[in-house]
Design a protein that fits this description.
This protein is mainly beta. It is about 10% helix and about 45% strand. It comes from Gymnodraco acuticeps.
């Protein structure tokens, strides 16, 4: 009997949920030498927009006995049933319940890919291959060959990417060809293609992996005290984030204001710095004049796609305390008396 399509109920509710269903049908030619047979094969790809449903399966036509009343589909030259339909059955399918996944830099991720076949096995040997495509380049990440009869010593593994793995026992027992990647790097981001091959048949699933890392945000000063010297610099550091785009803003709220003001074009940005793991760092420097108002709240706000909400850090501008002036004056007097005593 035909294998069931997992999560097929999603298709029933797609129209009610205003989700677009994409279906692609094409003629399929099995690989390698084939015995003479009347069956014809088709490859079908089904996915639901905005839903976690995607599958590709092989259809095989059912045998229809030919007589003088048999209907023929002219374009394909295939025999139709008495009702005028083309009878087929699913013999092999590859599916995934995720089409896109995000994972943290230096973290681990599982990319799900499963397969099913008809009750009568198409073949005893199954091959699993994972490839990565990114920015116009492609390379093999993982490859495995094993036998579904669980013959001892039958598994052959070729892992191109260190820290990649597929569980052979799950492949054999549950049709689970999921790929595990550990210690993610920025270079691991891209489009992953899971290809499962059973005998002369193969089908694929495509999964997008997005690597993200929220920034660490810090200010150069925990306490900002005005000085009579030239303008002081307050720096905001946005560190170890991925991907590249991060937005840094300075806001000011003086004691006279009721709402904070955006300080447009007053912060100077450093150049992006890239680290060995692919993450980035960026700094913004704000020049604060000595005429600034004590009590003013200066806020650095950082936005990045890996953050659920912008991160804001605030420092309050303080005026020098009178005690500090007397301390400095006393220090100068003591120093002068000391040197005078030494000289005399």
């Amino acid at each position: 009997s035909s294998p069931q399509i997992p999560d097929a109920h999603v298709l029933l509710h797609a129209d009610c949920n205003e989700q677009e269903v994409t279906c692609e049908l094409s003629r399929y030619s099995p690989h390698g030498p084939q015995e003479a047979q009347e069956a014809t094969h088709f490859l079908v790809s089904l996915s639901v927009e905005g839903g976690e449903f995607s599958t590709a399966f092989i259809l095989q036509t059912s045998v229809v006995e030919r007589d003088h009343s048999t209907l023929i589909q002219n374009k394909l030259g295939l025999r139709l049933s008495p009702s005028g339909t083309l009878l087929t059955e699913v013999i092999f399918l590859v599916f995934s319940h995720i089409k896109s996944v995000s994972a943290p830099l230096r973290g681990d991720v599982l990319l799900y890919c499963g397969f099913r076949q008809q009750e009568t096995p198409l073949a005893q040997e199954v091959a699993v291959e994972w490839r990565l495509q990114h920015r116009g380049k492609g390379w093999k990440v993982f490859e495995m060959k094993t036998r579904l009869d669980d013959a001892e010593g039958s598994t052959v593994v070729l892992a191109e990417r260190k820290g990649s793995s597929v569980n052979a026992s799950l492949v054999v027992g549950q049709g689970d060809a999921s790929l595990t990647l550990s210690r993610l790097k920025a270079l691991d981001e891209g489009t992953y293609i899971c290809t499962v091959t059973l005998g002369p048949f193969n089908a694929q699933q495509v999964i997008q992996l997005h690597v993200t890392q929220p920034p660490e945000v810090s200010l150069s000063e925990e306490k900002f005290v005005l000085k009579t010297d030239p303008p002081q610099t307050l720096s905001c550091h946005c560190s170890k984030y991925y991907p590249l785009d991060a937005q840094m803003e300075w806001w000011s709220l003086s004691p006279e204001d009721s709402e904070p003001k955006l300080l447009l074009d007053q912060g100077s940005l450093s150049s992006h710095r890239q680290h060995g793991d692919g993450s980035y760092s960026l700094s913004s420097h704000l020049s604060v004049p000595s005429s600034g108002s004590p009590g003013t709240r200066l806020t650095c706000r950082v936005s990045h796609q890996a953050l659920d909400a912008p991160v804001s850090l605030t420092v309050v501008v303080e005026s020098p305390t009178q005690g500090s002036y007397w301390w400095v004056l006393g220090f100068l007097i003591v120093s002068v008396l000391f040197f005078h005593q030494v000289m005399t």
